[in-house]
Amino acid sequence: MTNESGFVRHGKNSFIATFGQSESDVLVNLAEQLVEILAERIDGQPTDPLEAMVGFTGHDSPPDDEVLLRLLPNAYADPVDSSEFRRYTESVLREKKRIHAMAIRSHLLNSENHQVALDQETAQAWLGAMNDIRLALGVRLGVDSQSHEQLELLAPDDPMRGVYAVYTWLGWLQGTLVDALLNDVEG
C-alpha cells in the first residue's frame, strides 16, 4: 500500500487522505462486497401497516452466514429478547451499514487524484464501514486473540496473507482517521 500518512486533519472540519490507485480499487471493491453481503438478508413484506411504516424486518432469527452474524450480532444472551430486538432493528442496522459502505465507494469513485476530503459526519460513516469490512475480513481469517502471531507467519504464497495485509492496513487507516478526529479535541 502506498498511502503513507493516512488521514490528516485539514482545517476545523476536514479530514483528507490520498490513496494510490490500488488502494482505491481495494477499498471500493471491499465496500461493494460488504453491500452485497448485507443484501443477502432480504426482508419479508410486513402485513401490518404500522410494521411496514416503522421498517420491521420480519427476521427474528440470527443469520446463518458467519460474516452476517458478526455484522448483525444478537443483542441479548436471552434468545427471546434477542429475537424480538432483531425483528425491530435489523433492517435499520443493515441500511445504515449499507449507506456507510456506499460512502466509501462514492467518495473514492468521485475523487480527484484519489484524494478524499471528509467532514465529521462522513468521517464517522467511513469509520463504521471500515470497521464492518474489518469484521468481515476477520471472520474469514479466523481472527481471535490468539491468531495474530499465526497470521503474521503466513507463507508468502498463501492467499490469506494478502487478506491479512489488507486487514492490518485497514486497521492502520482507521487509526489515522481516529487520530485526526481526536486532534481537535486534544488541541
Which secondary structure elements does this structure contain, and how are they paired or packed?
Elements: E1 8-9, E2 15-18, H1 21-39, H2 49-54, H3 66-71, H4 79-109, E3 115-118, H5 120-141, H6 148-152, H7 159-186
Antiparallel strand pairs: 1-2, 2-3
Helix pairs in contact: 1-4, 4-5, 5-7
Q: Pairing-aware structural class of the strands and helices? A: mainly alpha
Uncertain spans? none
Distance between the termini: 30 Å
As laid out across the biggest beta sheet, the strand order is 1-2-3
Q: Indicate the radius of gyration in whole angstroms.
A: 18 Å
The chain-level mean pLDDT equals: 89
Series of secondary-structure elements, N-terminal to C-terminal: EEHHHHEHHH
Tell me the overall shape.
Answer: globular
Helix proportion = 55-70%
The fraction of residues in strands falls at 5-15%
- Number of helical segments with 4 or more residues: 7
Please describe the biggest sheet, giving its number of strands, its sense, and whether it closes into a barrel: 3 strands, antiparallel
The tally of strands reads 3
